Amino acid sequence: MWLLEKEVHMPSNNQPGSPPVLVPLWTREEIAKSVATLARNIDRDYVDCTPVLVGALKGAFIFMADLVRELQTPVEIEFMRLSSYGTGTESSGDVQIEFGPSREAIEGRSVIVVEDIIDTGLTTTAALEHLNQYDPSSLRICTLLDRPERRLVELEADYAGFTFTDHFVVGYGLDLDQKYRQLPGIYGLETDA
Ligand code: PRP
Asked: Which domain, by its residues, includes 163?
């Protein structure tokens, strides 16, 4: 793991075609602390019910796994597969829902959409609209990362870990062209700073 961390600390004289420079933003320890805080807040708000957590794949797979293990409140788990970025760092704006929970899993339930990041807000909005068709009793959003300055739609997270402005970020589930999801920390692309 140490080698992996070290590999991405590239020198800053990045050449065209060479791997991007990744700047450490949040360590594994800082992320764990934030996830624990989010879990305490969800525990506080869901005392008398069993919420259904819907993880937005692929990016939220690590956050979802860590979050549910920090929660005290019992939960049920579902996943949705949403995609809009394709390759590169800009959203296409065209959000595809490849699969998601059934009506039976959502109807009448307290639902929390679990996102790794909310940027333009288009993906999460599509997820909310889709799930709303199934008449949940409540629908909230929990995101580890929030970049509100980039919003193209009005959307506010009910639970947010880190709020930031700069950088396209990778690691802890987030990718650039499907790479870097496995990094335990979160890194920003220096070229986007
Ligand atoms: C990423 C991320 C969020 C979404 C946020 O997903 O996981 O779901 O973008 O961006 P937005 O707020 O601008 O819509 P992506 O489409 O890259 O798919 P992935 O989760 O498979 O990486």
From this structure: 27-192
Left if phi > 0, otherwise alpha if psi is -120 to 50, otherwise beta: which for 179?
A: beta
CATH code assigned at 128 = 3.40.50.2020
Instruction: Kindly report whether the global pTM for this prediction surpasses the value 0.70.
Output: yes
Structural domains in the chain (count)? 1
- Whether 123 is in the pocket of ligand 1, judged by its Cβ within 6 Å, is yes
Residues with Cβ < 8 Å from 13, sequence gap 6 or more? none
- Please enumerate in sequence order all residues whose Cβ is within 8 A of that of 44, keeping only pairs 6 or more positions apart, or say none: none
Least reliable range by pLDDT among 54-63, 93-102, 176-185: 93-102
Residue 173 predicted with pLDDT over 70: yes
Test site for ligand 1: of 63, 79, 123, most ligand atoms within 8 A of the Cβ = 123
Residue 14 lies in a domain: no
Using omega within 30 degrees of 0 as the cis cutoff, is the peptide bond preceding 58 cis? yes
CA-CA distance, 81 to 99, in Å (whole number)?
5
Does residue 105 lie within any of the structural domains?
A: yes
Q: Give the residue, by CA position, lying nearest to ligand 1 atom 4.
A: 123
Residue 106 lies in a domain: yes
Q: How many CA atoms lie within 13 A of 184 on its CB side?
A: 11
Q: Is the pLDDT of residue 66 over 90?
A: yes
